Please model this.
Amino acid sequence: MDGVTDQALLASLPADKPRQRGRRLVFTVIGILIGVAGDRLILVPARIADVAPRARETRAVAQSPFSRVGDRIIVPEASPLRTLLTVAAPTMKQVARTLVLPATVEADPSRTVKVMPPVTGRVTELKVQLGGRVVQGQELAVIDSGDLAQAYSDIEKARSTLTLTKKALDRQLNLEKAGGAAIKDREQAQSDHDQAIAELQRSESRLRAMGIPADQKESSRLLSIKAPVSGSVIDLQVAPGAFVNDPTAAMMTIANLDTIWVTANVPEKDIAFVFAGQTVKVTFRSYPDDVFEGKVLFVSDVVESDTRRNKVRIAFDNPDKMLKPNMFADASFAAPAMSRLMVPTSALLMTNDATSVFVEVSDWAFERRNVEIAYQEGTAVAIKAGIRPGERVVVKGGVRLND
Model:
């Protein structure tokens, strides 16, 4: 009876009930899958957040390519830095350095004379030109001077006074012999005569200083200025009609150019390469195909404070006057060969105002050491102090140790 009833009930159910149950089952499975996926999405960031510090710690340990022990930097065996550093010993090189410096031609000061006006007055004639050559005793200029007229007047007065005092002295001497004159009168006459002699000598000396013989009879206001030496007029400061009133201001300058100086300015850092007697080759812009060879005459004892350079002079004979003052030149100084430790410029590190390198003190252990550079030659530098022969330095990649 019950089986009949169940069958009847099943038969009475709608036909779509099994479909509804299938849909419910599908929806249930989908819900379970969504829940599982949501749990994973929530848990994964938490796990990542937990793993990230550990990864950073691992990387921090891996990224420590060296360690410090006091002043030393030690690169461990497993460090990747070993493949990035190049360590080598400096090379010892015989260096014969040539120093090329700009230079100029100058007149020899010991053969240069400034012509001063011996009197004040007006220049009435100028007998020379700038750059012209003169011989000793040649007339240079003519000055109309009241001082010259006064000098002639003074010498005439001195001569007249001398004649008068000489007669007075002779008269007193004769009276003294005859016993008719006092001694004090004779002494006074002697003193007056001595003073007259001194005044005449002063007046004659004044004329000679002007270039006029003291025994010249004719007096004139015109003074002829003569060349004191032979040479070339390298400076001219007067013209016809000019008034000269300063006895310390040169009217012109005459230089004997049979010997000239070539002056070069040596930088302070290169002074050690230059010395007196050193052979120098000089080329002039005016004669580019000619090489003049000379020797260093002297090296100045003073470094100029504004340029930090030292003057070096080379003397050259110049009989044909080819070399002229103010010409430009290039002077080549050949320094004697010497042994130098050479390192690449890539080994140098700048720290504040000092230059340093990393020196290997033991296997893959380095210390920073300041060095003194003598000079640079291409991509290498000569070390003056700081490194000893046989020591090894970091020649490439040293900046990686500079942290």
Q: What stands out?
A: The longest helix spans residues 17-62. Helices lie at 2-12, 17-62, 146-178, 183-209.
